[in-house]
Amino acid sequence: MKHLFLTLRWLVVCIVVVSGGRARASLRVTSVGCPSISTVSLDRAVRFYTKVLDFQLVKMEDSSSSARLAPAMSLETKARTAKLSLGDECLDITEYSSPIGKPFAGDSRANDLWFEHVAIVVSNMNEAYDRLKVAHVSFVSNVPQTLPAWNKDAGGISAFYFRDPDGHYLELIHFPSGKGQPKWQKPSTKTFLGIDHTAIAVSDTERSVAFYRDGLHFRVTGSSENYGEQQEHLSGVFNAHVLITSLRTESGIGVELLDYVTPTSGRPIPSNLRVTDVARWQIPLEVAPGPESVNAIEDLSRTHWIKLPARDGTDQEAVWVKDPDGHLLELIKRGAHMEPVKQ
What we know:
The structure is a single chain. With about 350 residues, the chain is mainly beta. The chain has helices at about 40-50, 125-135, 205-215, 230-235, 290-295, and strands spanning about 5-10, 10-15, 30, 35-40, 55-60, 80-85, 90-100, 115-120, 140, 145, 160-165, 170-175, 190-200, 220-225, 240-250, 250, 255-260, 280-285, 305-310, 315-320, 330-335. It has one domain (about 1-35, about 105-335): Roll (2,3-Dihydroxybiphenyl 1,2-Dioxygenase, domain 1), CATH 3.10.180.10. The radius of gyration is 19 Å and the shape is globular. The two termini are about 30 Å apart.
């Protein structure tokens, strides 16, 4: 087990690699919260998400002393964070002015293992696509793609990949009748409705499912095998053949695993990728309190959990772990008698 120790004032935080095969018990993750990304310009990022994609700015604050940024923290860390919402879902964006993170690699592809995106549900794909064209957004897909009818799990779903000003991948997705979560079928006058899931590239579906399902109590809610012209044009990856596995917990957004069968040229997450770097995402997972959760990470001492600021009177602690491919997860544990955390 690999440990990386960082200092947050007097607190010691541990980021560990947790193997699904080595877990002695199952952590019961009950909710997936607001994904978190880094930016080189918070003001620019907020303008993009609010003006182009209709997110709402909930708050913007100096987060230099926030325990939520513990993996990046030292006494010299300077940061600002904006919380944005879209429908019932949210996104956290942080700008680190010290230390300054590395920008997105210019040659990043959708099959690289640091790939992650959030899927933004739209009520009308043509209207959403027109909005992106007017804003001169950087496209990954050439045009919105509708998956073919022979794909019984994903057929009829239309999607479009693009990138924000920092280079983060994003997806527009439209679910036809009978596909997706029931909430996305409700009539709406809005174009951009919310976030359905975050998707991550993985190198081994079986290993990742064992980690998330068996180790973290996610449910497998669907799977598909996508290939052909539409998948190539969607991802911008020639000869793309992808195994897709959808995972969900009791509440919050889903997590989607993208395993590229071909091409096999996807690169691993660099070992030196920092939280401050633009390519690094964080996924917060709320863990049910109780002895099972403690036993499941019994290799960590209590000092590896840090106190989070009280929210609505709730006592919370967090620890950061990496999944088998190196995606960063924030496990949040509430007090045993507390109400669920409201995002």
